[in-house]
Each structure stands twice: as C-alpha cells, then as structure tokens.
Amino acid sequence: MNTPSVSPSPRFAALGMVVADMAASLAFYRRLGLDVPADADSAPHAEAQLPGGLRLMWDSYETARAIDPEWTPPKDSSPTGLAFACDGPAGVDAVYAELTGAGYAGEKAPWDAFWGQRYAVVQDPDGRGVDLFAPLA
C-alpha cells in the first residue's frame, strides 16, 4: 500500500512579546532569573533560552511596526501569561516582595490557592500579569 508522505508536526519553540521599553522589560525578567545579555537592552529584538529548549523573545514597538506598519499596541492588557515556579511557598512570598519592592506593580499578593499552590501575580512593565507559584507543603 502506498502511504502519502506526511511532514513532521511543528513543535512549540518560542513565545514572543512586543514591549514598550526593552530595557525595562529585560530588567524585570532578569530579576526572575532569565539570562539575557546586557547589550540586549538597546536592541530591537532579544531572546532568552529557557529550560527544555524553549525561547522567550522580546521585540520593541518599533520592530513590530517595521514588520507591520499598521501594528498598534493593544488597548488593554495582553492575554499573554507567563508563570514562574518558585522554591516553595516562602519563595513565592520572597520573589513577590523583591519585585514589588523594586517598584513593579503587584496584581495579587501571595495567597494559598484552593488547587494546592502558593500563588501571586505581579505585572511586568507592559502590564502583563506574571504568575509566581509553588506547591503548598
């Protein structure tokens, strides 16, 4: 029997975000432990390699407009959500305190969620909610 050839399935490899202020955004994500070169602060595009081979990518508003001249920033906060695992419930509290202490907006202070995790949400410089979590003991 002759089987038609099938191309391999695509694999999820990267998550991209368009940001208003590249340096401010990268500073926020560096505080969460991502390794982004310092010279990326003034670049139109930056990337960080994540565990498991995924990449997180940032593009400036100018880059987005160069790709699509009709592009405009979202009017409301973006539905993109990122979540960072912390080292235990106390780690959630510590990271939340460190980020809000550095001036980032806390969206929801740490709480014990009914699904069995310590959880908190802080906003990145573009107003995206970034979840912090750890399993409860």
Task: Give your account of this protein's structure.
- The protein is α/β, with parallel strands linked by helices and 137 residues long.
- It has helices spanning 22-31, 61-67, 88-101, and strands at 14-19, 45-49, 55-60, 82-85, 106-112, 117-123, 129-135.
- 23% of the residues lie in helices and 31% in strands.
- It has a four-stranded mixed beta sheet with strand order 4-7-6-5, with helices on one face.
- It is globular and about 50 Å long.
- The mean pLDDT is 87.
Summarize this structure as a short list of keywords or feature phrases.
2,3-Dihydroxybiphenyl 1,2-Dioxygenase, domain 1; 3-stranded mixed sheet; 3 helices; 2 domains; 137 residues; alpha/beta
- CATH level-4 homologous superfamily of the largest domain: 2,3-Dihydroxybiphenyl 1,2-Dioxygenase, domain 1
CATH topology of the largest domain: 2,3-Dihydroxybiphenyl 1,2-Dioxygenase, domain 1
User: Which series of helices and strands comes N to C?
Assistant: EHEEHEHEEE
Structural class call reads alpha/beta
Shape: globular
The helicity comes to 10-25%
On the 0 to 100 scale, the average pLDDT is 87
What count of structural domains?
Answer: 2
Beta-strand residue percentage: 25-35%
Quantity of strands, as a count: 7
- Largest β sheet strand count, sense and barrel closure: 4 strands, mixed
Q: Termini, distance in Å?
A: 56 Å
- What's the CATH first level of the largest domain? Alpha Beta
* Uncertain parts: none
* Rg on CA atoms, Å: 18 Å
Spatial strand arrangement across the major sheet? 4-7-6-5
Enumerate how many helices there are, as a single number: 3
